[in-house]
Amino acid sequence: MTSERASAPRRITLTLRRPWPGWHPRPTVVFAGRGQPAQWGTGTWQLPDGDATISVFLYNRLWRYGEAALELNADAHVDAVEYSAPVLPFLPGRLRAVTPA
Fold first, then answer.
1. Each residue's pLDDT expressed in tens, for the chain with a length of 101 residues
2. Can you name the residues that pair with 41 across neighbouring β-strands?
3. For residue 83, which of 98, 67, 95, 71 has the smallest C-alpha distance?
4. Are residues 52 and 32 in contact, defined by beta-carbon separation less than 8 angstroms?
5. CA nearest 60: which of 93, 87, 24?
6. Do 53 and 72 contact (CB within 8 A), yes or no?
7. What is the spatial distance between Cα 47 and Cα 74, in angstroms, rounded to a whole number?
8. What residues contact 60, with CB distance under 8 A and at least 6 apart?
9. Which residues have CB under 8 Å from 27's CB, separation 6+?
10. 3-state secondary structure at position 6
């Protein structure tokens, strides 16, 4: 019999922060190669089983920018990830695991 923890889906809290000045398009979050539109702020996302790559980018109808990626191992105990969008549309974003305080 498998444990209940093994069958439960793995979830993380993803905080998407936009820079203060100006307008910025909504971010797109990619898990396992599937893009999903998102909102600015904090949300909970379900990860696929095993190792997972999370990437986030912005798209403004002309080009993609602010892309950042993070590899999460299945053994890593990461519960929260934070994305910070760039101020200028030709810079990369920043995606990092947040350690609990």
1. 455 555 567 889 999 999 888 788 999 999 888 899 999 999 999 887 888 899 999 998 888 999 999 998 877 788 899 999 998 888 999 999 987 76
2. 16
3. 95
4. yes
5. 24
6. yes
7. 10
8. 25, 89
9. 16, 37, 38, 40, 56, 57, 58, 66, 83, 85
10. helix
